[in-house]
Amino acid sequence: MNNTPLLKITNLTKVFGGQKALDRVNLTVNVGEVHGLLGENGSGKSTLIKILSGFYEPDEGQLEVNGKSVALPLLPGQYRSLGFEFVHQDLGLLPSLTVTENLFMGRIAESRTPYFSWLNARRQATKIFADYDVNIDPSAYVDEVRPVQRAALAIIRAIEGIKYLRASAGAEVEPSLLVLDEPTVYLPSQEVDVLFGLVRNIVEQGSSVLFVSHNLDEVRQITNSISVLRDGRSVGTLNTETSTKRELVRLIVGRDLDQDEFEPIPVSRSEDTVLSVNGLTTSLVQDVSFDLRKGEILGLAGLAGSGFEDPVYSLFGSDRTASGEFMLSDLPVKFSGHNERSAIGMGMALVPADRKIFGSIFDLPMADNVNLTVLDNFFFKGILRHNKLRKNARDLLKEFDVRPQLVGMDYGLFSGGNQQKAMMAKWLQLPQAILLLHEPTQGVDIGAREQIYQVIRGRTSTMSTIIASSDFEELATLCDRVGIFVKGRLAGFLTGDDVNHSKIAEMCMGESADAR
């Protein structure tokens, strides 16, 4: 048996502007294992991965791959010759191209032959997918396939790319490392198991996997061992099978989180109705009607394709296919003529699931992003008062505990949890009546998640909230009622003691439940 680690990192250090993002970090990934990497947003996980990909140069540290010392820093692209490949949460696929075109994109770019046979490529793609026990139509366009199939395609492309590169170079076959950075963040919970089957298949074929995630349950399900970073330092490595969730939480946040922090907080709700939706119909849902009460947190849940997220986007005017109407403050509004501008004017705010594409401008500084909703407040006689804009941003970052509190740093350089807190801060500057959230803690660590929960709960006295989420535990923790969508229809509501993970899952699967 080969006991030589596939990857060994020793004393890895990286400094940004005098602040240590990594402080003498150690990490060992053994051959044939799925190794989890956990830590709060800003703990150094992304910095470590970017050093392995050659994007960042470390200030010090040593790297060994398959027992051989490798000089740092890595050159751009050098990771491929080491047998590394990376799949990030955005997957790096081109939706307008077919599955086959995405799978063989690298080979096509490197091919020196004047003719490329797409017929042979599709046949080869079919065989490759069969080898991994994955069912994907090679002729389908990527934007037509299910989210789990897109994730599987990105992972298989990465592994096959390593094999192709080594075969082309006549290199010795050695264990390879696949780094999965939040690969399940956009997947419905019921499809995660499908992806994990693929991960296990890859490990059985001789690769190792470094699995980076904020989801403790998923990490405990798929990994053999788990390393934790906190404030840029290595704080421990645990055997997954023999460790507990409480031990992991303690390592991640540096303290025990009281169980009460994850329990629903009872709040007295008004019976006054602030919003009534009548006959909402979109491309996914039909004839949906419900009321929202003053100060209520209403959850919406369902399986992928059930349309449970459609009401939040329709209410914000972002779904042009929507029909029906809603009543807000005794004012009837047709969905067909509703848009984002009118929604904001009515006191609605939307925090979407995909903050990178729809919720922010990654290349602009944090100060600009958090002030987008109130930008007019900082103009005087047509001139933007930058000092006041930055001061307001600094106050917001402090209030919402966004780290680091550097208003001039690009929004895209902040970690996911801090980006999400900043998005909440952006909207909550305005006088809001209704807060619309879709997957509000997607890709957010356990500490930032609780902070976001506290923000949501703290606003119930002044606004009502609708949360569309595939995280049933989240809904059970936050919500007064949960509406369940099954095959495009609102099947009913769970209230009281029935608002729990098991009941929500059962009803989403189409099990019988009383509509309350």
Kindly describe this structure.
The protein is an alpha/beta fold and 516 residues long. It has three domains: 7-256, P-loop containing nucleotide triphosphate hydrolases (Rossmann fold, 3-Layer(aba) Sandwich), CATH 3.40.50.300; 260-347 and 433-516, 3-Layer(aba) Sandwich (Rossmann fold), CATH 3.40.50; 357-430, no CATH class. It is 32% helix and 24% strand. The chain has 17 helices and 22 strands. It has helices spanning 45-52, 78-81, 99-103, 105-110, 118-131, 147-169, 189-204, 216-222, 245-253, 310-315, 340-345, 366-370, 386-399, 416-428, 446-458, 472-478, 501-508; strands at residues 7-16, 19-29, 34-38, 60-65, 68-70, 84-87, 177-181, 208-212, 225-230, 233-239, 273-281, 288-293, 297-302, 323-328, 331-334, 348-351, 379-380, 383-384, 434-438, 464-468, 481-486, 489-495. It has a six-stranded mixed sheet, with helices on both faces. A hairpin with a 2-residue loop joins strand 4 (60-65) and strand 5 (68-70). The longest helix is centred in the N-terminal third of the chain and has 23 residues, at 147-169. 43% of the residues are buried. The model is unreliable at 259-268 and 511-516 (pLDDT under 50).
